Structure formats: C-alpha cells, structure tokens
C-alpha cells in the first residue's frame, strides 16, 4: 500500500485513483479545474471527501499537474499525490503506478465532487460480485440524432438501450492494467479501454449528482448545490 494512506480494517482494500491533472479548458478559468473553489473548498478536496465518506476502505491516489503536487498534498493530506500526464489516460496510469497492490481499483474524475456514497459502494459491490469492469450509467433523457458535418440530420437514434456513463469506474486490478496496456489514445474513459480488449463491462445505476463539472454552466449548478448538499 502506498505511503500516507489510512487503511480501515474490516474489508478488502480498494485503491481509488482520482485523475485531477486536466487544465479545465472548457471551464475557462485561470486555474486547473480541480483547484477551483466550490463554496470554500476546492473541487479536489470535495471529491476526496466524497471518497472517504463512501466508507469503502480505500487508499486514495490523486493525480495533479506537476507544478501543483505540493499544493495538492497539503490540500488532501490523506491522499498520495503524484504528477499526471498530457492525456487523462496517462494521468490514470501515473496513479495506477503508485497505488498499492489492491485487488480492486476505482478511477474517479476529480470533476465529479458530488458523487453519492451509494454509487461508490454499488461499483465496488459489483466488482466483488465478479464483474471485472463496472461503470455507473444513467438513462438518456434527450432525443438523440446523428448529424452530418453540414448540420443535416441523418437519423434519430433509439435512446432506450443507451446510457450516459459516469465515474467511479471499478475494475479488478488485472483488468485495469491490461486495459491500459493497449491505449491508442481514443477511448474517453477507462472502461472504453477495457472494452477494446474484450473485457465485459457491467453497468450499475449512476446518479444525477455524479455529474461532471465541465462547463461554466456546470460550475454554476455545482455552486448552487454545494449550499444544499451536506458535506
Ligand atoms: N484529467 C487528468 N489528466 C489529464 C486530463 C484530464 O487527470 N491530462 C482529469 C481531469 O482533471 C478531470 C478528469 O480527468 O478530473 C476528467 O477530464 P475533463 O472533465 O475533460 O477535465 P479537463 O481535461 O481538465 O477539462 P477540459 O477537457 O475542458 O480541458
Ligand atoms: Mg479533458
């Protein structure tokens, strides 16, 4: 297990990798997204608190921009903090590299600080039940259409079998390592890498509160929510 973590006895130890090394281009602020204030704490601090609140017996590994490692370590002293890479998947691999030899590894975007404890537990439980890769997903509410480059609608997609996928995504350690050994840079999530090498990915119920803060609109919602959600 990595130095600085605080194991709780009584269950299998899980590693939670939190990629937080992105720049937050779409948010458009002058600091990386994970370090943006959300009602008096950073998004990163709220995210780590959320993992600890989930009570899943986890060591937490946080991956941040190289010049912010010390700053982040002071913000989240219960976590191991390491520098990330240019792409999300590289940051995830940096986290995997320093994580302990746990059987279960969760990968959870820093940008989803309101993710309820129930979602973490559902993902861990599904991995424990035998699924090698597990993702939270939500039904899609909007009508979906495929559109060509000129803006012409090609067709309307049946949304019934579609799910919008969130994090935490959970894996057996061997599955996650195998998935990341074959990264050609196109998958937007870790489960996508697993799918490409033939690993079955299982969906559990996600939660609207696990939404990702991506745009200024999302941050506005988050700042309203932080007044309401007890933490
Ligand atoms: N991430 C990371 N390393 C990267 C890129 C992204 O650790 N090189 C992390 C982000 O910090 C975030 C998560 O992956 O917690 C999801 O990525 P996203 O929401 O796209 O965040 P950013 O890449 O920071 O935002 P943008 O794409 O708008 O620049
Ligand atoms: Mg990004």
Automatic annotation (TrEMBL):
UniProtKB keywords: Isoprene biosynthesis, Nucleotidyltransferase, Transferase
Positions bearing the site annotation: Transition state stabilizer: 26, 33
Annotated site, Positions MEP for the nucleophilic attack, chain positions: 159, 212
Enzyme Commission number(s): 2.7.7.60
Pfam families: IspD
Pathway: Isoprenoid biosynthesis; isopentenyl diphosphate biosynthesis via DXP pathway; isopentenyl diphosphate from 1-deoxy-D-xylulose 5-phosphate: step 2/6
GO molecular function: 2-C-methyl-D-erythritol 4-phosphate cytidylyltransferase activity
Top-level class of the enzyme under EC nomenclature: transferase
GO biological process terms held by the UniProt record: isopentenyl diphosphate biosynthetic process, methylerythritol 4-phosphate pathway
Similarity comment: family membership: Belongs to the IspD/TarI cytidylyltransferase family. IspD subfamily.
Organism: Gordonia sputi NBRC 100414
Keyword Magnesium: no
Lineage, uppermost ranks: Bacteria, Bacillati, Actinomycetota, Actinomycetes, Mycobacteriales
Known function: Catalyzes the formation of 4-diphosphocytidyl-2-C-methyl-D-erythritol from CTP and 2-C-methyl-D-erythritol 4-phosphate (MEP).
Catalytic reaction(s) noted: 2-C-methyl-D-erythritol 4-phosphate + CTP + H(+) = 4-CDP-2-C-methyl-D-erythritol + diphosphate
Keyword Membrane attributed: no
Chain segments annotated as transmembrane: none
Protein name as catalogued: 2-C-methyl-D-erythritol 4-phosphate cytidylyltransferase
Gene3D superfamilies, A to Z: Spore Coat Polysaccharide Biosynthesis Protein SpsA, Chain A (3.90.550.10)
